[in-house]
Design a protein that fits this description.
- The structure is a single chain.
- By secondary structure, the chain is mainly α.
- Helix 2 runs antiparallel to helix 5.
- The C terminus is likely disordered.
């Protein structure tokens, strides 16, 4: 009888061991089966990230963004300079408006460029740097008149024409929408500059301030200070 009980106990222990081993094997198989699923998820995520990359833009679209950035940067730089050097408080007020409004537009250009994968220049072009250096060398009334005719009138006029020309070339709808939004702002700045130039010319004295004597707009040349 005791021998029979011992045999039953051994059989029970063997059965329990077999069941434990089977459970462990099943758990290992389940873990191995879940690994490909995780890898598949990783692969899918990678594909989704790759799909989120901005499409390559046409060269004209990239150039349009760069031109918009440069023109805004130039107006901000010259405006900041005018805030420290301008003698006329009305011109200082105009300069502050340029810093504020072109600063806002530049932020929009930079955000759109980042979304489109376009790297914008961090510095002004050689042309704008040269204009800034020329303004830096002036002071007083001569600075005021030159700043208004160069940055206020001429640069805004060039930017306005660039935006107009680019609208026919831009293919990306987001960039075109930004150009359309920017153009009337530039036009308002140009009109304000013309009004301020006319107003200060009427109040000026001497040859340089005589109304109708300024030919800088027609020739495209910078006004030449009078020699003393």
């Amino acid at each position: 009888m005791q021998k029979t009980l011992r045999i039953h106990r051994l059989l029970a222990l063997s059965l329990a061991g077999a069941m434990f081993a089977a459970g462990a094997a099943q758990a290992q198989t389940g873990a191995q089966g879940s690994a490909p699923t995780a890898a598949a998820k990783t692969s899918t995520a990678g594909t989704a990230t790759a799909g989120a990359q901005p499409a390559k833009l046409d060269r004209s679209d990239r150039n349009a963004l760069i031109e918009m950035a440069q023109s805004n940067m130039a107006e901000i730089a010259s405006g900041k300079l005018a805030l420290t050097k301008a003698a006329n408080p009305e011109i200082k007020a105009y300069a502050q408006r340029m810093v504020d409004e072109h600063g806002k537009t530049l932020a929009e250009v930079q955000a759109l460029a980042q979304a489109k994968g376009v790297e914008l220049p961090k510095e002004l072009s050689v042309k704008f740097k040269a204009k800034g250096a020329m303004l830096e060398a002036l002071s007083g009334d001569i600075f005021d008149r030159t700043y208004m005719k160069q940055s206020g009138r001429r640069d805004h006029r060039v930017t306005h024409e660039q935006l107009k020309d680019n609208l026919d070339k831009i293919k990306d709808p987001d960039i075109k929408a930004l150009a359309l939004k920017m153009r009337p702002v530039v036009e308002q700045h140009l009109l304000a500059a013309d009004e301020l130039i006319a107003k200060t010319a009427r109040g000026a004295t001497g040859t340089a301030g005589t109304p109708g004597n300024d030919t800088s707009t027609a020739t495209g040349k910078e006004p030449i200070p009078n020699k003393k």
